[in-house]
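The instructor's notes for this session suggest beginning with a concrete chain rather than abstract definitions. Hand out the sequence below and ask the class to guess, before any prediction is shown, which regions might be ordered.
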Amino acid sequence: MSGLNLEGLKNRLLSAKDKLGEEFIEKILQELEPNFRKNSADLSLQEHLQHATAKLNDCSVILAHKFQPILKDYIALKEQQELVNQYGIIKAKEKEDLDLAKNYQLCFNAFLNASEDVSVKMGDKDLCKNISPKDAFLLIYYGMATAQRQESDNLPQLAICGFT
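After discussion, reveal the predicted structure:
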């Protein structure tokens, strides 16, 4: 089996009737192809399918009934490929963990120290005693992110809100 190529397998699997059907579909697609290239930006998938259905019906109603699902799938796949080809591909370089940690530290510090945009306030200052509101924020944030809350844990509520 390893000695057979894809074309050889295809020829063994398809009957003579299937091969004729494939040739028929290829001919229809070749006749529709110039229409796709000229108007691909203007025509929707539905319009492409209407052209293909009309072309098949012109040939034979019975063949149209038999081959329309195949042609429909092919046209949808072709449209999808054209859409995918319009997107750019950006490959990011993988960074070291230390570099990522430094970047996160810079971003977090920039957020926390943006005094015009971020303010840290406390409702009950007695709970935090001599700890600054920013340090309390960090401790509560870390505690909420890394531990499960317990009833009566005396941990102040943390609320992050604001305008964008």
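Then share the key points. The chain has a mean pLDDT of 80. The helical segments are 6-13, 16-39, 45-59, 61-85, 97-112, 125-128, 133-146.
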